[in-house]
Amino acid sequence: MRGRGAKIAGVLPLFTLFMAGAISAFEDIERLRIWPLPAEVSHGGRRMYLSGDFKLVTEGSKYEDTTGILKEGFDRMLDVVRLSHVVSGGRNSSRSGGSALLQGLHVIISSSTDELEYGEDESYKLVVPSPEKPSYAHLEAKSVYGALHGLQTFSQLCHFNLKKKVIEILMTPWNITDQPRFSYRGLLIDTSRHYLPLPVIKNVIDSMTYAKLNVLHWHIVDTQSFPLEIPSYPKLWNGAYSSSQRYTFDDAAEIVNYAQRRGIHVLAEIDVPGHALSWGKGYPSLWPSKNCQEPLDVSSNFTFKVIDGILSDFSKIFKFKFVHLGGDEVNTTCWSATPRIAQWLKKHRMSEEEAYQYFVLRAQKIALSHGYETINWEETFNNFGSKLNPKTVVHNWLGTGVVERVTASGLRCIVSNQDKWYLDHIDAPWQGFYDNEPLQDIKDKKQQSLVLGGEVCMWGEHIDASDIEQTIWPRAAAAAERLWTPYAKLATNPDKVTTRLAHFRCLLNQRGVAAAPLVGGGRVVPLEPGSCLAQ
Amino acid sequence: MSPNLLLLLLLLLMFFSLSITSSLSSPSPADSPPYLWPLPAEFSFGNETLSVDPAVALIVAGHGGGSPIVRAAFERYMGMIFKHASGRASLLARIRFLRMVEYDITSLKIVVHSGSEELQLGVDESYTLMVSKKDEQSIVGAVTIEANTVYGALRGLETFSQLCAFDYLTQSVQIYKAPWYIQDKPRFQYRGLLIDTSRHYLPIDVIKQIIESMSFAKLNVLHWHIVDEQSFPLETPTYPNLWKGAYSRWERYTVEDASEIVRFAKMRGINVMPEVDVPGHAESWGTGYPDLWPSLSCREPLDVTKNFTFDVISGILADMRKIFPFELFHLGGDEVNTDCWKNTTHVKEWLQGRNFTTKDAYKYFVLRAQQIAISKNWTPVNWEETFSSFGKYLDPRTVVHNWLVSDICQKAVAKGFRCIFSNQGYWYLDHLDVPWDEVYNTEPLHGINETSHQKLVIGGEVCMWGETADTSVVLQTIWPRAAAAAERMWSTREAVSKGNITLTALPRLHYFRCLLNNRGVPAAPVDNFYARRPPSGPGSCYAQ
């Protein structure tokens, strides 16, 4: 009996939301079950059915899709829509829908190119007609990547009709105009603390598209292991955990390609000089000494030659305009403790602190020489912000107030404050992820425009292939709405969106993503039997 | 620099890095023991390394060779074996191209003698697998799988895929320790995994992920505990209100969904055994048909007095017969608390009228349900309480399903019944405090010494009850412990019983868990005492 009482208590908050009588505009939006919420939505009350051979039509589109990005995106959309149940109802005849039958989706894209450019237009306009004006839904976008977002939204309008056993769209006609609030909506994965096999990374990328995230921040290397092949310095991946826990150069190119075809940038990171012990497994001279192995030896030109080699190789596969150079948590004790380096410091009249600055700035110059703009963790700004290259993007993680100071100094910023947006904090509840406002306390418009966006971080100390999905989801989705949806449309009380987020979590489950329950706070397992929608 | 000089330098570089890599302290397939899971019945190997052509050709022979099941499995396994980005641009691929080096293995021959694709209990799953370098004698190709049925061929393909490893230096797929000769067959014909879609709904895609992962460990029965007191997710055309007992409209299976699951499982050589657990675990039936409850305030077990109750069971079984071709049907029969029968006036009167105790009524219910199943050409499976309560009345064809008492199979087979072993102390996957070695060391034939009795133990099953396992954690609660039971049920008893399992099994299980991860299955760390816990810290998959 105790268990049963608890069950009802768990369900109650959701059902009260369901039953709330008078439908305000806000509650109407919450009933739409679209995540993240589009900028503008209007809908009617009619039902339409998807034809059994629902088609992609592109007449009038300037984009020729020679690379198949749109066609693949369309096919993926249909696949996930049909994943929930076997569609066995009348295939295409008028019997299953009559005039309410949607024949396909007409996609018109005005840009002919499919270069994935950071900050490009991701907007789209989606119209699903009512039964009086049947035949095709319409999707317009500037770029094919905006159209991909539109396809995601379309997939969330589709439901399975259990009687007719066909796909239906309720509440037509739909008019949706949408674009993201922030251009940088990231998720960090960490393949150094635990190796993540390729299919796992691909699954993460696919799940990101459902929540319209657009940057995979790949923290490739750290103290523990160096899994990536670097052709210029082929012994670096001797620092991998084992001969099989590695990514070939081609694997990395494949991940970038896989992500790009889904509109997702891959931000590669090498975290220098403080998180780089594993580099020395292949090249021990990168260590200050055998028994003092971190940070990288600042005194040796070879260190910077290796960084140059890595970034040169990176520039062949990581096409994103940014590269992440880390720069956090640098404990410089090894430098003064190693006589050779202590001597070098003395000769160059540098303190440890100045050597840290020297290292970061020299690494920045190397990155710039390969055409990258650099991102660094916030300690670099906190310690020598005025010396950073003006193209630097400062990546917040530690404190609050940093974003304000960074943008006041004219630099750009990405928000990842650890108290709210670190996914490895497994007791951090989804409400905190939803609530975390990147523009908190930033009133100046120009400063606001310097906040590129935010990122949730899935650090890998306790995360491997077995628990990554449920640690990321559904909490990353809460942040994704914060980053996508116009500020005015966001709920001031996160609990108001519980029903809609629970629905999105169940949608992820249906698509094979192991998103965890909402009830219980943080990353939890279900406490008892019950409906996905109520947990 | 001339191309030849460049080539030479590249080669030198490679050999240099080879010598470095061999010093890595990690398991490599080149080390012993052979990293196969479950361990084949008989095998021998050599000391050669063979490369496998990414464009390896499928050659089929025998009456069943042309089966679409074989072709589809071949395509699946090629996808798994060659999952790294093609090494076209890689160093060695270029060298190979320049030197026109041939791969050692360019074709895979699959011989299937029988043309029948019927999948039933006891289907022949044996196979032989030979891997050797091509020479004048073996014009048939370098790899041959020979089996009596397509399902044996599937098991052989799984073993073949476990011999293949991606080599990061040459960036090609290699088979170490060739030539291989493997002759294999399962110890038990029934190797099951239970899933529970009543306590938590599992989406179709998730059930498919589970089925796919079962095939990697050579499990062959998915016991689908579809319905229980919490929810009734399956469509039953004859009684269309039954699935009103689902948690929600979104948490349901149509008839076509269920058929698709059966089809998907069959393509992987896995039978689906459905269960309706009567009369004790059926409260959700009454959401659609309240007459099935003894009363509105006392809802379980099902009302034993009404013919309607048995009409509904008959209707469900008739509908399910069209979906599930497997010969076994599970009727549950466990944990029947008959208080509601005693406390409901009309049921109490009915009992008095027939001079029934509640226990008599329980027996009456189970036996009547058995006859319905038998009339539909099904062999009934029942949980062990039915045997311990009124064993001598059970239909002699009954398969007794153990869960509660450790020696129940011993008793059941002594009475001539067949038995499935699922001792809850070790093989209930929802018990999180049972580490892999306890699962592994649990022997279904323990205490059963007569050969004729041993034969009646058709196998065992690990049970993934769903109270605290939904989509978000089901796979990591199943794996890797289900694999420990899978080897117990597949490999020879000698192989799994002798020696120190920390040496004979643990390194292979580590390897298999990482293989599952590499195939996208979120198998949890092996070494944690509690199941499905996260890794304790940074580290190699092979060491956690």
From TrEMBL, chain A:
<dbReference type="InterPro" id="IPR017853">
    <property type="entry name" value="GH"/>
</dbReference>
<dbReference type="InterPro" id="IPR025705">
    <property type="entry name" value="Beta_hexosaminidase_sua/sub"/>
</dbReference>
<feature type="signal peptide">
    <location>
        <begin position="1"/>
        <end position="25"/>
    </location>
</feature>
<keyword id="KW-0732">Signal</keyword>
<keyword id="KW-0326">Glycosidase</keyword>
<feature type="domain" description="Beta-hexosaminidase eukaryotic type N-terminal">
    <location>
        <begin position="34"/>
        <end position="157"/>
    </location>
</feature>
<comment type="similarity">
    <text>Belongs to the glycosyl hydrolase 20 family.</text>
</comment>
<dbReference type="Pfam" id="PF14845">
    <property type="entry name" value="Glycohydro_20b2"/>
</dbReference>
<dbReference type="Pfam" id="PF00728">
    <property type="entry name" value="Glyco_hydro_20"/>
</dbReference>
<dbReference type="InterPro" id="IPR015883">
    <property type="entry name" value="Glyco_hydro_20_cat"/>
</dbReference>
<keyword id="KW-0378">Hydrolase</keyword>
<protein>
    <recommendedName>
        <fullName>Beta-hexosaminidase</fullName>
        <ecNumber>3.2.1.52</ecNumber>
    </recommendedName>
</protein>
<keyword id="KW-0325">Glycoprotein</keyword>
<dbReference type="InterPro" id="IPR029019">
    <property type="entry name" value="HEX_eukaryotic_N"/>
</dbReference>
<dbReference type="InterPro" id="IPR029018">
    <property type="entry name" value="Hex-like_dom2"/>
</dbReference>
<feature type="domain" description="Glycoside hydrolase family 20 catalytic">
    <location>
        <begin position="182"/>
        <end position="486"/>
    </location>
</feature>
From TrEMBL, chain B:
<keyword id="KW-0378">Hydrolase</keyword>
<dbReference type="InterPro" id="IPR029019">
    <property type="entry name" value="HEX_eukaryotic_N"/>
</dbReference>
<feature type="domain" description="Beta-hexosaminidase eukaryotic type N-terminal">
    <location>
        <begin position="36"/>
        <end position="163"/>
    </location>
</feature>
<dbReference type="InterPro" id="IPR017853">
    <property type="entry name" value="GH"/>
</dbReference>
<keyword id="KW-0732">Signal</keyword>
<dbReference type="Pfam" id="PF14845">
    <property type="entry name" value="Glycohydro_20b2"/>
</dbReference>
<dbReference type="InterPro" id="IPR015883">
    <property type="entry name" value="Glyco_hydro_20_cat"/>
</dbReference>
<protein>
    <recommendedName>
        <fullName>Beta-hexosaminidase</fullName>
        <ecNumber>3.2.1.52</ecNumber>
    </recommendedName>
</protein>
<keyword id="KW-0326">Glycosidase</keyword>
<comment type="similarity">
    <text>Belongs to the glycosyl hydrolase 20 family.</text>
</comment>
<keyword id="KW-0325">Glycoprotein</keyword>
<dbReference type="InterPro" id="IPR025705">
    <property type="entry name" value="Beta_hexosaminidase_sua/sub"/>
</dbReference>
<feature type="domain" description="Glycoside hydrolase family 20 catalytic">
    <location>
        <begin position="188"/>
        <end position="492"/>
    </location>
</feature>
<dbReference type="InterPro" id="IPR029018">
    <property type="entry name" value="Hex-like_dom2"/>
</dbReference>
<dbReference type="Pfam" id="PF00728">
    <property type="entry name" value="Glyco_hydro_20"/>
</dbReference>
<feature type="signal peptide">
    <location>
        <begin position="1"/>
        <end position="21"/>
    </location>
</feature>
